[in-house]
Amino acid sequence: MTIHYHGTPITPRVELLAMAGCHFCVSFARPDDLDVVLRIGQSVLFDNGAFSLFKRGGGQLDVMNYYRWLEPILQHPHWAVIPDVIDGDIGRQRVFTHTWPFWQLLGAPVWHLGLSIDWLLELSDHWPRVCLGSSGAYWEIGSPNWCARMDEAFNALSRRRIRLPWMHGLRMLGQVEGPWPLASADSTNVGQNFKRDTGCANCKAKRIDAAQAPRTWKLIETQSRIFE
Fold this sequence. Notes:
Helix content: 25-40%
Structural class: alpha/beta
Radius of gyration: 17 Å
Order of helices and strands: EHEHEHHEHEEHEHEEHHH
CATH class: Alpha Beta
Number of strands: 9
Largest sheet: 9 strands, parallel
CATH topology: TIM Barrel
Strand content: 15-25%
CATH architecture: Alpha-Beta Barrel
Number of helices: 10
């Protein structure tokens, strides 16, 4: 079973309210709907806004303001993405994991697909939940190279332990039907596309929520995907 986090903002407000009972994702860069989803949602994923910064051409995340923003709202069943830098090196990412000021169960570091598999294994050894983020040569979700890298990651994780850690796919709701056993994923698909698809945000969300990831992973030959 996969938890589906629907990215906000979602407008008009009446469409968002009709999604009561869904799981939501609120970005530090766009907290417009925060109060509403805390009232109507099952749980909320708080995103650090690194993707928005990257799309705007870069810039530094205001880490301390992000922590101050989280302080009054970060508690179970909600959780947050630990600060990260898309295309940043492992040294920068490690600093963020070492200085996370909240309980580990309330945060998840990001493993960027462009970084080493060893770094993924290190994160999964020390954190109960890890986010998967597209980067570098693996920026395009669903491309052959991206799929091969995901295969490689899950191969390594499954060799490491019998039961996989909680893996969250950033911007990967479109991939939850497999083959990767994502415990949760998020996307802004509903907010961006429901008006032209169905005209009904909740209807689109229900269709997305019906897709579930497989429960287990079988080792796969990664290189075969590159040449499909």
